[in-house]
UniProtKB/TrEMBL annotation:
Belongs to the pirin family. InterPro entries: Pirin (IPR012093), Pirin_C_dom (IPR008778), Pirin_N_dom (IPR003829), RmlC-like_jellyroll (IPR014710), RmlC_Cupin_sf (IPR011051). PANTHER family: PIRIN, PIRIN-RELATED. Transmembrane segments: none annotated. It comes from Exiguobacterium aurantiacum. This is Pirin family protein. Residues 174-280 form the Pirin C-terminal domain. Residues 48-119 form the Pirin N-terminal domain. Pfam families: Pirin, Pirin_C. The lineage of its organism: Bacteria, Bacillati, Bacillota, Bacilli, Bacillales.
Length: 285
């Protein structure tokens, strides 16, 4: 398409890891929270390795999470009676909305390895009803491409629609390529987007920027455009990467602890509500 906006790498960096201490074995910031203004509508993204007891019962308000399981078994428990086990390749979407209270635990003696993305909600949706959706790997459509495949978790990508039911417009795809394969990933031109390399190495965008495992790249975009954009991906080795995109919300907000609201007063009210029992009983089996 002659009018398609061709994306390039805006910034990129390797993830730095730390060891917080058992049972939280290792953590890295894929999207560092102090740079949140660059990532709108995304707030942060963490990569975690953890044992049971790291993310037990805790509250949230005012945003959404997208948790992708890389390895191990992730047990979800919420205080509305929800319970599920997610395996490698599965994703959980949570709309915290007004008052979520849940736990995310490793099963038994597993060492769980996850990616969790925080996705902002516009002010008008911050008091919506809390909900959870499991997107199992077998339910995310796979699109065969020359030299690989695209698994679509959310949005319309490569002629397929992902099952994730996000409250704001996003795409999430897992791209797997053989060495030497070249693929153009098409997403809306007005979406802010980033890429995380799960395995292997690629040359990305119009500049063919070299990236490898544990590297992150934000991408150029045209917020005023209505059409499509293309991201050229060339696999310089057998590779797997995740591509996320979302339409910016462009509202001022504050992220403090487990809450993301538009003002300091709203953050303080969230803490008061939690301690007053508004979020309900603990999330335990």
């Amino acid at each position: 398409m002659t009018n398609r906006f061709e994306r390039d790498v805006a910034t990129h960096w390797p993830v730095a890891y730390k060891q917080p201490g058992y049972p939280h074995v290792q953590q890295g910031w894929i999207l560092p929270p102090e740079r949140k203004d660059e990532f709108d509508p995304f707030i942060l993204m963490a990569e975690d390795w953890f044992k049971r007891g790291t993310f037990s019962d805790h509250p949230h308000r005012g945003f959404q999470t997208i948790t992708y399981v890389i390895d191990g078994r992730l047990e979800h428990i919420d205080n509305h009676g929800g319970h599920s086990i997610l395996d490698a390749g599965d994703v959980q979407y949570m709309n915290a909305g007004w008052a979520a209270r849940h736990a995310e635990e490793a099963v038994a003696d597993d060492l769980i390895h996850t990616l969790q993305l925080w996705l902002n909600l516009p002010k008008a949706l911050k008091t919506t009803t809390t909900s959870y959706q499991n997107v199992y790997v077998e339910d995310a459509p796979i699109v065969p491409i020359d030299g690989g495949q695209v698994r679509v978790y959310s949005g319309e990508v490569a002629g397929a629609t992902g099952p994730m039911d996000s409250l704001v417009p996003i795409t999430m795809s897992e791209v797997s390529l053989r060495e030497g394969a070249v693929y153009e990933h098409v997403i809306p031109a007005n979406h802010n987007a980033f890429v995380y390399i799960l395995a292997g190495a690629v040359e990305l965008g119009t500049s063919a920027s070299p990236l490898e495992k544990t590297h992150v790249a934000t991408l150029t975009f045209d917020e005023t455009a209505d059409g499509e954009s293309g991201l050229r991906i060339k696999a310089t080795s057998r590779t797997k990467l995740l591509v996320y995109s979302g339409k910016p919300i462009r509202e001022d907000y504050i992220a403090h602890g487990p809450f993301v609201m538009n003002t300091e007063d709203e953050i303080r009210q969230a803490f008061r509500d939690y301690h007053a029992g508004v979020f309900g009983p603990p999330a335990v089996k």
